[in-house]
Amino acid sequence: MLAKQAFSRGVTPWTGTFLGNFWLAVFWGLIAAVRGQVIPAESWGIAAVIGLMFVLGQVFTYLAFQFGDVSVATPLFGLKVLMVAALSAFGTGVPVSGMVWLAGTLATAGVILIQWSGRKAAEADDAADTSNAADSTSAPQTNKLLTVVLALSAAFSLSLFDVCLQKWASDYSGYDFLPVMFGAAGLLSLLLLPFVTWPTEIRRRQAGRWIIGGTILMALQAMSMCYSLAEFGDAPRINIVYALRGLWGVLLAWAFAQRLQTGEASAGRTTMLRRLAGASLLTTSVLLAIGA
What we know:
- The protein contains 15 helices and no strands.
- It has helices at about 1-10, 15-35, 45-65, 70-75, 80-90, 100-115, 120-125, 145-170, 175-190, 200-205, 210-230, 235-240, 245-255, 255-260, 270-290.
- It is an all-alpha fold.
């Protein structure tokens, strides 16, 4: 919601990606400097490739919203939970239980119900959506095939990132692996500089506190998620629990809708009931996953 305020003031979404990755690179760089230890140099290439997957997932996400149809892209992102389960079973050789598959399916359905309000609502909310700041300039006739390709590419890149991080970082401490990985992601993010809003323009638009606060929170959630994957593994269950962010987002958006002037202030009864059903599915999926 903080980032949404910055984007509504004219700050580009790429600025959010760049700053979020910058905070991560700085934080983990400081951890490495204090500890004086990272993974061996021969493993830096693997860490860099995993960092590339992280950045590609972000890039494909923004492209899907900028050049695609939000009402098509949003539910496709929910498939990430199932993709992680499938890739985990295939890539790590650790079988995923039937209960976790069921939980993943329920979580996917819950994410779709919470985030997808249908075409009419999505178009009305485009100007206020965090990820869709540039979507309002899209042509009326959206290329749905392009939307599907970009959205699935984003979900697949981030799913592959989760599973590869779990697999390769398990040989090391997360404190050793993540500084190199996020350092690589930070360097790759320099390619986004031509699309980043410069500090002078951010100040002129009075968006500094919003974009800084929002991107620091982005970095904190990425840091927590990635550390959990690197240190503990179990990507399918972690992604099911992580999917609850959709529920927290809806509740917080409703709570602060009037104050921050977000699209949720005008959400209709049908939309609210749909999101409530999605929240129920998400909660059930987490209970199933934890108990499996």
